[in-house]
Amino acid sequence: MLCGAGAAVHAQDLPPLQLAGYGSVAVYRGDDAVVGVAPGTRNPRHSLNGEWRADGDSVLGLQLRWPASDTLEAVWQLQASDELVRNFRPSTQWLYLGWQFSPSWRLRLGRQPLPLLLASENAKVGYAHTAVRPMPTVYSLNGAYPTDALTLSWTAPAWGGNLLLDLATGRNTLTLTRGRIDVKSSHMAALRWQREHLALRLGVADFRFNIEDSGLARELDALSQPGSVCGNCAAKLSDRAPARDIQGALLTLALVWTPGPYEFTGEFTRRGGNSVFSPEASGWYVQLARRQGDWTPYGAVGETRFHERALGLQARPGTPPAVQNSLDLLDRSLQSPFDRRILLAGLRWDFAEGMALKLQAERWSALRDRSTPRGGDISLAPGQNWDGRVQLLSASLDFVF
User: Fold this and answer.
1) Which InterPro entries does the protein's record reference (predicted)?
2) Which of 73, 188, 261, 383 is the most exposed place for a label (fewest CB within 10 A)?
3) Phi, then psi, of 307 in degrees rounded to 5
4) What is the pLDDT of residue 143?
5) Which SS3 state, helix, strand or coil, does residue 347 take?
6) What does the angle CA 358 – CA 360 – CA 366 come to, to the nearest 5 degrees?
7) What is the CA radius of gyration of the chain?
8) Inter-axis angle of helices 214-224 and 233-240, to 10 degrees?
9) Domains of the chain and CATH, by start
10) 13 has pLDDT over 70
11) What is the dihedral of CA 237, 238, 244, 246, to 10 degrees?
12) Contacts of residue 258, Cβ cutoff 8 Å, sequence gap at least 6
């Protein structure tokens, strides 16, 4: 009460603080007895054999904005979700200063997602998306993670519409179940053009990072020693599997077309790098939705393809066949042959202001490998053979305030 009274006394001296938020209360269910499935690559738990779980897409976010003047603002956003090692502990997603120093130019300094993909700035805001979540065939290749960055934006009329250019540079750290990824530098540019019901987008980025994982480093170092069971690991791993100073690049394309009650969305990304720990891959999806009053049925299809070549690891002559089998398994794992297709259909009901209820069914199909152990949003244990198909059923109540 005393704090409230003090705030009231100074209310006329300070600009008003603006509080907003978003959240999702969601459940999901995978139907397979062999593989576990999760809504995202950073969810620590999976649904197996028809188990209902409530941790995947469930999230609560709060955002505090202070408009210090007509041209200067400060933004702080906290988010709590079941994100790998955090277990719903809140973390800072945004913490930046924004300065509109001219009608066409804007500067943003601090923690923020880099504006590379369509859903970069609202990936966890379920209400902002027609579907339950952004399509994983694209977003599993490059998530919208918070970055300590400097972003410069320019906008101007062009070709009967509006043109926006974003330039950004920054760095961030991504925590893993064991170790972390330190992104030493990340640079990007995105060009967006919008006119009435059509929006086009092109983005490019390059990045450099280290994998800080002592267990991985010991395993690779042991295979590269002169007396190891692998005859060519020293050369192959040094050439194509460095865990430090990894360099990568991204290309993204997107289209949004909204004629009348329809909404057509398409997005494509291509990733490359100098290490199997940033494997060459491409992903795409197209989604069609139709708004009918408060109801929006929608459907989508997408694929992810990995283009990384096998390393060709070879055991030394005279070693048991089991050694070569073990090296072949390691080779397949590093190659990431996890191509897949996703078909989904869903229904969104905007039953109240700022609130939407969604029901979504997905069919995930492996297009190449069905036996190599894997993690991420598909969990397959060693020694298991999978038929390559899994169904994911999701329901969510999304809200903004």
Assistant:
1) Porin_dom_sf
2) 383
3) -115, 10
4) 75
5) strand
6) 155
7) 23
8) 140
9) 18-400 (2.40.160.10)
10) no
11) -80
12) 197, 198, 264
